[in-house]
Amino acid sequence: MSEFVPGADDPQRAHPGPGCPSGADHDREVPDVDLLTPLKIRGERLRNRIAMSPMCQYCAENGMANDWHLVHLGSRAVGGAALVMVEATAVTAAGRISPLDMGLWTDDHAEPLARIARFIASQGAVPAIQLAHAGRKASCEVPWRGGAPLRPEEGGWSPVAGPSPVPFDEGSPTPEPLDPQGIHEITDAFAAAALRAVSAGFRVLEIHAAHGYLLHEFLSPLSNERTDQYGGSLENRLRLTLEVAERLRKRMPDSMPLFVRISATDWVDGGWDVEQSVVLCRQLKNRGVDLIDVSSGALTPKARIPVARGYQVPLARKIREEAQIATGAVGLITEAPHANEIITGGDADLVLLGREMLREPYWALKAQHELGEEPVWPTQYGYAVKRRTK
Q1: How far, in Å, CA of 249 to CA of 245, rounded?
Q2: What would the pLDDT profile of 141-195 be if each residue is shown by its tens digit?
Q3: Cβ atoms of residues 86 and 128 within 8 Å
Q4: Exactly one of 213, 230, 381, 383 is catalytic; which is it?
Q5: Phi then psi for 131, rounded to 5 degrees?
Q6: Which helix or strand (DSSP H or E) is residue 72 part of?
Q7: Quick check: is 362 catalytic?
Q8: Which CATH architecture has domain 11-389?
Q9: Bridge partners, 161 (sequence order)
Q10: Angle at 360 between CA 354 and CA 366, to 5 degrees
């Protein structure tokens, strides 16, 4: 793996695109890349800097991917995204957020996912998958039915796991603290799911250590009250996430990128914050992680989050600069010029779109047009698209 240097990118398209501010017009020195510049990470070359964020669809049965997932994810690959990431995929059955979550805890789960990976790759995008464990936020109803905790007689399960007996909210179950054997089993489950993902044809893996789920719960002092080697000091609270990253890196091909999604801050005094995130990301880089997918929040419902256009982008920039690791920016990024500015301004190396890409599967193709380039439509659509412009 080459050393990360902000702004050092693929020379095949190293110039500002149309509508992109030059260094002379910008308030800081900027790299000679833009949103449409390819990005090389280890052995993968992304065709642009646009990725589809992992977003739960809550329609898997017993963790199995189905036709909805194929069409949902495949259409974003057709739509020009460079990387398409499968939703949070549970490494154990008890690690699902809801009974309808995606899973990869058995070999049987791999083949329907392999079909999706094959199609995404056939459209020129890189297939990626996020591996996750929901921790104390497991066993819940789907969001459109309220998202409340489910009892076993309602289709849920008990107990839910966590670092400490600290519930997410007043009406949430008290998690059962993982003992050393339970922690070892979790890391084994992540490693086993990673091997299945590689065999299924995914070319990027992401560890979910954000949004109040298990690994984030170990990181934050608000949810981790342990006094053993996995709690207390920052070094101890980092331990589980670092162990999972180490296990995956050893089981992945050296050419395959490894991402980690983090919540860079809990947005609560005394909780996890961006300074601790920088320390974590330096350690993750040393263990072979290639990019940090920078989100925030969701550990506690009491957080006061300053939600606004691009509100998490400064977090991605700080981690990129201070941890010297590539970052992805997420959160209320909806317009192509804004996404372009994030890249040209040196805030991040990749822009991951979530809800906006749900609203517009062809966002990446439209961004090409808006930024002054000829959209690369699929062959099957190209004739019709070109005829309409004549």
Answers
A1: 6
A2: 999 999 999 999 999 999 999 999 999 999 999 999 999 999 999 999 999 999 9
A3: yes
A4: 213
A5: -100, 135
A6: helix 67-78
A7: no
A8: Alpha-Beta Barrel (3.20)
A9: 176
A10: 110
